[in-house]
User: What shape does this take?
Amino acid sequence: MGRKNLILVFIAAVLGGLVAINGSKLLNFSNEGPSYKSIQERQQELGVKAVKTKYSSSIPKELDFTEVSEHAINSVVHIRSSYDSRVTTNGFFQYQQGPSQSSGSGVIVSDDGYIVTNNHVVEDAATVQVVLNDNRSYEAKVIGTDPTTDLALVKIDENNLPFMAYGNSDDVKVGQWVIAVGNPFNLTSTVTAGIISAKARNIGILRDENNLQIESFLQTDAVVNPGNSGGALIDINGRLIGINSAIASPTGSYAGYAFAVPVNLVKKVADDLLEFGVVQRGLLGIRINDVTAELSDREDLSVVQGVYVFEVNENSAAEEAGIKEKDVIVGVDGNEVSNTSELQELVARHRPGDKVTVKLIRGKKDIEVEATLKNTGGNTSVVERVTESEIEGSVFENIDGSEAKDLGIKGGVKLKDLKDGKWKDAGIDEGFIITEVDKTRVYTVEDLKRVMSRLEGQRVLLLGVMENGDKTYYSIDW
Assistant: This one.
């Protein structure tokens, strides 16, 4: 028995030693280093064993945003707007604000350099700089702006650019996946994902002196922050369905509510700005409210959804079409209408002179009428952009594209009719084309008026060319 016990003790001692040695290695108690010299190689060795499938095949195809994002970031640009110093009045006090900058995003919509962004990204900017995803930088020309939809069209001199194809916002469904691309907080090429939370949202952020603002936003919970303005909201196929414009937040940063202008409205506004320089708004000429259960009971309506007409303007498109007070509009051109935002968007997609089919309910009858839309002046004519203006007694006009090309400039403002006043006192010759005011580019009479209004009481340097192409400059006490 003693010998057996001795053998058992010996075996136990040997096993115990082996366990202790291996345990010390596992716990790294030994002074010896690992058998490998590269942690990266070690990770790769272990990774090959651990990862057996590729990422793209491990998730549903409709949730793989990698390919779509790769294309989208090259079609979305960073926009930096610079502003001159200006004097502002607050009560009895005046404040001198120095030069400032702001930034946002934009979407390339054509290969030759046209970019859609928000009006508030470029509004009143002295200069607009566009930076592509590959860091190429350009000075942009503002083609036109529309505060009523918060949209703007700008242009850079470049070709063969990666542009984003238009989608169809009418086909967008609540709950579908979407992707937001932009430059929040100056962080370029940022991609976030979410779903469509609602359509035709009116959040009361746009104002217009004629009450012509259009708010029919797509709402999404994709993360959007300051700097995303003007960026793209796209579907999972990479098509543009909206221009990100606003967020609803108590802090000014992301809180789950972001809003985008639907692309079907963007298309129309961009084309108007491209062709005319201003938006051509077709109007029915009615005053309206959303139909509610309370309104339906009070007016004895047969529906609880739609747009209630409580006034028809004289000589308006609506009056000529036979639309009457107390009618409820429930459709336009085959599209259902359940609230004022939807009606305003559908009508705003048209120009003066366009015909629209309006479906309405009068009493308990369904009626369809055809209305020929009119402009703000009450007719069907095209609204011309202001190309000529009087400034301090003298008349200035925009030069057209062909003249600018012949002179080798991007644009400018010509002194068309010189009269007595500051311009004549400065010795400026009639026909002088102003291209820069104190290092600020000017392309239109609106640009010139805006810049000069900020320089009151200063001596101002004007750069430009004469009609024969000779470059020259003048200074003027303003």
Residues 286-372 form a domain with the Pdz3 Domain fold (CATH 2.30.42.10). The CA atoms of residues 356 and 371 lie 5 Å apart. The radius of gyration is 32 Å.
